[in-house]
From TrEMBL:
Keywords: Secreted, Signal. It is found in: Secreted. This is Major royal jelly protein. It comes from the Eukaryota. It comes from Aspergillus ruber (strain CBS 135680). Its main location: secreted. Pfam families: MRJP. InterPro entries: 6-blade_b-propeller_TolB-like, MRJP/yellow-related. GO terms for cellular component: extracellular region. The keyword NAD does not apply.
């Protein structure tokens, strides 16, 4: 009786560690809501921190003493919509996707603010100089309804694919900065169902009873560069050959008919984020079952690990030591909208491959 009570008390005080699914390990416990982690090949760690109930979004480097510093600097993280001196062209207005690319840069997708020119952009930070040395404004590519969300690159590293949760894909020629918005309103790019979270539909931002619908969000490129995978946030993964996607930059017929080349790939669930490994397995975070799915290159989709601590896992990362990094962003849909409370956990889980070199080193 007493021993049982003792175990129960011990279990309570270390509940997170004790309860974790086999293989899942706690790497970081952070005070601030954290959406994503990127780790450079030499071990530097970068976090995108948003979804807080009280704090503005920010990009930071996580230092070895576990403190953080604004990244690349305070100025880029200083946007204030109430201050007319705040420059939306040179500050992060609304960071979403953030990841180190195959070129070693830390790329940040600024979804911007609708109607604010220069606010939607793709920002590349050189990790050697810690300075922004690539900047693509997306004004001429996006639609008025657009919300740019995440980025991946083609095998040659000269085309960026950006998801637009209004239900479209942006294809950007990184040499010229020109691009196309394709798949707009295609069935494969459009939310066909509201999102699910922990067993129920996710409330929307509209009147009582409305639900959250989010279009094309997650994207991945196969390690051989042949396929672009993509899906709306409620799941349903498609793929298209990158040769067709890249050709939309120069072929106006393909630009309007790209959706004809979409192949259904796997019936994935409501998703927080995805990543891909060197073997071409795609990891999909399930916001409903609080789990991570694995989708093989053959399209076989199974649950890899489930744990109630995997609360809205978002921008995942794969390291060379074959670990999947899982930031549980802890978005809690409800009265405050999609906002999270701390503490915020980042977990790791063992997998059988490292990163795909064309995705991140
Ligand atoms: C930083 O946090 C990690 C994970 O919690 C821990 O293992 C490490 O000891 C911490 N480092 C310092 C210097 O506190
Ligand atoms: C934003 O700008 C307004 C107007 O200049 C100012 O009153 C406010 O304090 C600023 N907010 C922050 C967080 O700096
Ligand atoms: C918006 O920015 C683009 C470049 O990003 C520029 O060409 C255009 O003139 C700007 N439009 C307005 C209305 O300022
Ligand atoms: C980053 O800057 C360094 C120093 O200027 C340069 O040598 C390097 O090529 C840059 N990195 C990339 C990816 O361009
Ligand atoms: C991007 O633009 C450059 C310069 O015009 C061109 O050489 C290249 O073929 C373009 N890339 C694609 C994928 O269209
Ligand atoms: C998930 O739902 C269960 C059942 O309603 C509830 O007990 C639990 O607190 C929920 N978890 C979160 C994080 O909302
Ligand atoms: C454009 O793409 C279509 C479909 O693949 C193809 O039939 C056509 O020949 C292409 N046009 C050009 C100019 O390459």
């Amino acid at each position: 009786m007493m021993a049982g009570l003792f175990v129960a008390l011990l279990g309570l005080s270390t509940s997170l560690a004790v309860a974790l699914a086999p293989g899942l390990e706690l790497a970081y416990s952070l005070n601030r809501a954290t959406q994503g982690i990127s780790i450079s090949s030499d071990g530097r760690k970068f976090l995108s921190q948003r979804y807080s109930t009280s704090d503005p979004p920010q990009a930071v480097e996580l230092l070895s003493d576990n403190s953080t510093r604004l990244y690349p600097n305070a100025a880029w993280n200083s946007y204030n919509s109430s201050n007319p001196d705040s420059n939306p062209r040179r500050t992060f207005v609304s960071i979403d996707g953030a990841r180190i690319g195959p070129d070693g840069r830390y790329w940040l997708v600024d979804g911007g603010s609708q109607g604010v020119n220069g606010s939607s952009k793709l920002v590349g930070v050189n990790l050697t100089t810690d300075a922004v040395d690539k900047l693509y404004y997306l004004d001429s590519i996006i639609a008025s309804s657009s919300s740019v969300d995440d980025v991946r690159f083609n095998a040659a590293g000269d085309v960026a694919y950006l998801s637009d949760t209004a239900g479209a894909l942006l294809v950007l020629n990184m040499t010229t900065g020109h691009g196309k918005r394709v798949l707009a309103n295609d069935d494969s790019a459009t939310a066909w169902y509201p999102m699910m979270y922990n067993g129920t539909l996710v409330p929307g931002y509209g009147p009582s009873g409305n639900t959250l619908q989010v279009g094309l969000d997650q994207i991945e490129v196969s390690p051989d560069g042949v396929y672009l995978y993509y899906q709306p946030c409620n799941g349903g993964l498609y793929r298209i050959k990158t040769a067709f996607v890249d050709a939309t930059l120069t072929n106006s017929t393909l630009e309007t008919t790209l959706g004809d080349y979409a192949e259904p790939f796997a019936l994935t669930p409501s998703t927080g984020g995805t990543t891909i490994d060197a073997n071409g397995n795609i990891y999909v975070s399930d916001t409903n079952l609080l789990a991570i799915w694995k989708v093989t290159p053959e399209g076989r989709a199974t649950v890899l690990v489930q744990d109630n601590a995997l609360l809205w896992t978002d921008l995942m990362w794969v390291t060379a030591d074959k670990k999947l990094w899982l930031p549980a962003s802890q978005m809690r849909p409800g009265a405050n909208g999609l906002m999270a409370k701390g503490p915020n956990y980042i977990f790791t889980y063992p997998i059988e491959a490292g990163p795909a070199p064309i995705d991140h080193a």
